[in-house]
Design brief:
Layout lengths: L1 H12 L4 H19 L5 H11 L2 H7 L9 H30 L6 H33 L22 H28 L2 E6 L4 E6 L4 H28 L4 H22 L7 H11 L4 H35 L1
Helix pairs in contact: 1-2, 1-4, 5-6, 5-7, 7-8, 8-9, 9-11
């Protein structure tokens, strides 16, 4: 009856990794013969093998459990998912409300489209993107928590929560991918259809808004900056915070990114001539380009101030924590 045992063991081990098979083969055979207790009759062998159960089920006991998102990441996944869905839902709601206020022959149809198209679609996108990010982390076996050391136990209640840091960082990664990708897509498409009709002002323009040659320079560089920033965030995630080297790298990346934005969007030819001509013809203001560039400069100043405040806060926290 060894043939039955051989076939059973083979059926179990063929489902396992190559490096496991020899050891499991030996272990399983020993277990079977222990259960036979010296009685190797056909009936007893069949009884023992039946009690052991289906080979596929037994083989699963020797495998590591497989998850789309494992227990170690699941709590963080839920925390991030709640934040992402709230953010996506609010953005979709605001966008939908704006759409509802547009003139439309069928308000009810527009409302249904906003509710089931825009909002639910946005929530599903947030869910799918968050799940995808965590599934990749699980597949790559990325450890979000640093290796446990007794010295790393937090003080009560002064030390910030590691969980909050993980959630915050993953949310930053997801939102930067979504809105950074959307920003690059808008710049590459670079097409508008503007139509304003007021009592004293009528304006219509269809076509490119920004200089495409400049966009073909800016968008790839912005994409590289986005990738670098998120790589830094991944290292921050693995280390449980910023090291001095990592924070220095992030600081340089942020400054270079804002500097690139400043250089590109302060170019005199950032807007296409056709758009400027359309504005001049509609408004009669020959200095309209100066007004637009003033708006660009104001936006850039706000970006510099916001980036500077963020970096100062990060460095203050880092240096203060070390002291």
């Amino acid at each position: 009856m060894n043939n039955l045992i051989d076939r059973y063991v083979y059926d179990v081990t063929k489902k396992l990794k190559e490096e496991q098979r020899a050891e499991i083969d030996k272990e399983l055979r020993a277990h079977i013969y222990d259960m036979l207790n010296g009685d190797e009759s056909e009936d007893n062998v069949k009884k023992v093998l039946t009690n052991l159960g289906a080979p596929s089920k037994l083989a699963s006991n020797y495998k590591e459990p497989r998850y789309l998102i494992g227990p170690e990441l699941f709590d963080d996944y839920l925390s991030v998912l709640k934040i992402v869905i709230i953010v996506f839902g609010i953005i979709a709601l605001i966008s939908g409300l704006i759409q509802l206020f547009k003139p439309d022959d069928n308000i009810f149809e527009t409302f249904i489209d906003v509710l089931f198209g825009s909002i639910i679609g946005s929530l599903f996108t947030g869910f799918a993107l968050t799940t995808l990010v965590f599934a990749i982390l699980e597949y790559r076996n990325v450890k979000l928590r640093p290796e446990f050391k007794v010295e790393s136990l937090p003080q009560i209640p002064k030390t910030p929560s590691k969980k909050n840091l993980r959630v915050e960082t993953i949310v930053e990664i997801i939102l930067s991918i979504v809105f950074g990708g959307l920003f690059m897509w808008i710049l590459l498409v670079n097409y508008v259809d503007l139509n304003f009709n007021f009592d004293t002002f009528q304006f219509h323009y269809t076509g490119a808004l920004l200089n495409k040659d400049l966009m073909y320079i800016f968008v790839p560089l912005f994409g590289v900056s986005l990738v670098v920033d998120n790589i830094i965030r991944v290292f921050k995630l693995k280390q449980g915070g910023y090291s001095k080297v990592l924070l220095s790298t992030y600081t340089i990346s942020q400054i270079l990114g804002v500097l690139l934005f400043t250089i590109i969007f302060l170019q005199p030819n950032i807007l296409v001539p056709q758009y400027i001509d359309a504005l001049i013809n509609s408004s009669g203001n020959q200095n309209i380009l100066d007004s637009i560039m003033w708006i660009f400069r104001s936006i850039i100043i706000v970006i510099w101030i916001g980036t500077s405040i963020e970096l100062v806060i990060l460095w203050y926290k880092k240096l203060n924590h070390q002291n």
